[in-house]
Amino acid sequence: RLERDGFALGDRIATLAWNTARHIEAWYGTMGIGAIYHTLNPRLFPEQIVWIMNHAEDKAVFVDITFIPLLEKIAGAVKSLKKVIVLTDKAHMPQTTLPGVVAYEDWPD
Q: Which positions of the chain have pLDDT values less than 50?
């Protein structure tokens, strides 16, 4: 899925999520294409998360539903962000203003 969406070796992909099976799957998928995977600590101040994402030049972020409000507040300040993958399915996908958003379970195979 990541490769089909244009992600490749060396791209940086963040996660803002709890420790779940989907989070582990995201790790395997990211590492499998040779991209750089890093976690974001939700306990940091929003400005710190923005700095980390901009410094890393993250192209995508895997996000848990509970962190969507936080990500909505800061996504506009992350210049390189192209895709937001919400760790859920369409049935549980909340409405959001995030750019390039897809539901993880319903992301095209």
A: none
